[in-house]
Specification:
single chain, 73 residues, flat, transmembrane, membrane, DUF3953 domain-containing protein, transmembrane helix
């Protein structure tokens, strides 16, 4: 379940980033950051389920950092 969610979020983020890159239209950038942050949160949850807590903490901390940057911009 989490793997499917992670892959679909990665694809959505990739499409949004490529759209901004090729069209030089960056109005989707905050949404892209949000999708990538949620993807990192899901990756962190997957790591906690696998028992690799170090990588889980790193992913969750990166997600929190991205959300702070997103809401400050």
């Amino acid at each position: 379940m989490l793997k499917i969610l992670r892959i679909s979020l990665a694809m959505i983020g990739l499409v949004m980033a490529l759209y901004g890159f090729f069209t030089d239209n960056f109005w989707l950038q905050p949404y892209t950051l949000f999708v990538i942050g949620v993807m990192l949160l899901v990756m962190g949850l997957e790591e906690f389920q696998k028992g690799r807590t170090e990588y889980g903490y790193i992913s969750v901390a990166t997600c929190i950092f991205l959300m702070i940057v997103l809401f400050i911009i």
